[in-house]
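Interim report to the steering committee. The following record documents the input for DUF3017 domain-containing protein (92 residues).
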Amino acid sequence: MPDRYRLSVHVPFGLVCGIGLIGFLLVALQHWRRGTVVLGLALLVAAGLRAVIPDDRAGLLAIRSRVVDMLLYSGFGVVIISIAMTIRGLFG
């Protein structure tokens, strides 16, 4: 198996992790609402990538079956974003 192929398998997970790190950075900088929304968006990106990338190229995004992964990633993403958008106060 070529090295390029092995590296490309981890790119989708790396993208999701990069978005998640940006979200955590925003939370650490006390922009908790924006950071939490970005974390939810990272999960929605994971769901979208899991929907379009074949199982053999999904890498660490493939935990369960494709349908279960998509439902859980998108469900948690929507819940996190909706909670972040509905909480009032907390400086932010």
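The chain has one domain: 10-89. The committee is asked to note this result when reviewing the revised timeline.
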